[in-house]
# Entry
Amino acid sequence: MFGFGKKKRPVDLEAPAADAAAAPAAEHPLPAARATEPPTTERTRRAPQPPAALSPPAVPSPLAAPQPPAAPGAGSAPPLDASAGQTPGRLAQAIAERAAGQLAEQRRGLLAGLRNGLARTREVLNADIAELVTGRKEIDEDLLEELEMLLVAADVGVPATTRIIEDLAYRVKLREVSDPKGLLEAVRAQLAEILHRADGSVRQPAPGRPQALLMVGVNGVGKTTTIGKLTKQLQAEGNKVMLAAGDTFRAGAVEQLQAWGERNDVPVIAQQPGADPASVIYDALQAASARGFDVLIADTAGRLHTKTNLMEELKKIVRVMKKIDPDAPHEVMLVVDATTGQNALHQAVQFNEAVPLTGITLTKLDGTAKGGILFAIAERLEVPFRFVGVGEQIEDLRHFEADLFLDALMAP
# Structure
């Protein structure tokens, strides 16, 4: 399992109230030489909050660091009832079955939501391909040619499509695939291979240091909104998050990020419009390190991937971050808009050349039939996808799981 952030130990609901509501440890002050944070955007003192109500286990976020297995007996398991004939073995089995049922139900809910978000792409990749093979008894050249056209129409990309069709033709010749139903399964297997080949874990920070995420992308792809949603998810896992307003160029960009900071109750490090973005992010990483934050998410100005001077600015930001933490940034995440089709692939290639990408978030999948661009990017760059956006709500920023994504896209 890979992840961002540091997952916190959950509050013991049976512990005394005084322990559960203990006040957070005092934070270190921001170094005076770099005190650029607007006082209105930080809340240094928070009232103790009561323990949250017990809820079903959440799907682990790919932003959460791997956790050691829980100690035996940990959690909210019911006490052993000898009078009811329960034994430790039976009790453990009952707990495991209950947990499995809850996770299965949660997965069904995630699958249904993802299917709805991918409805327009499903119409091309799933419905049209199913219609293509309906009534056919054998696989011939005409069928493969029509399948090729459908994959290209869904923006799977020419290189990936060519490789898929050539592999299918070879397997048909060897009689490994002999009927249209088997053809659909073979297509899914090929798409799964593309996504799994691009999988990869997230680098973790050294002990005592924050995990630094650098968000990049062109204007209008939903970068700042993604930061806000991501912050909320990380907070729900118990992480202390700080934001850095590195977009000092676009009018209103700082204010937009500060609005997300106020909404999520997280500090935002910012300077005046037009300031050097590398300086802003340097200050933010220094503050996050000094004050014990778990995650720093740095926004950057939207820039055209064809503008050499702006791409050089990204390189400068990375160099400056390494002066504080040689491993930073731990994640360079590109945000791309699925509705732009093949242009999203061009953006990914250019950004990857300037600052090697370690993750991608694909937004606005619910508004396009060209969701196949995800496969085109994965085939070309082999950079893992971290999130997909399938709606406007915070929960519509979904952790990307290749198999779940394919189930939502290809299952009947």
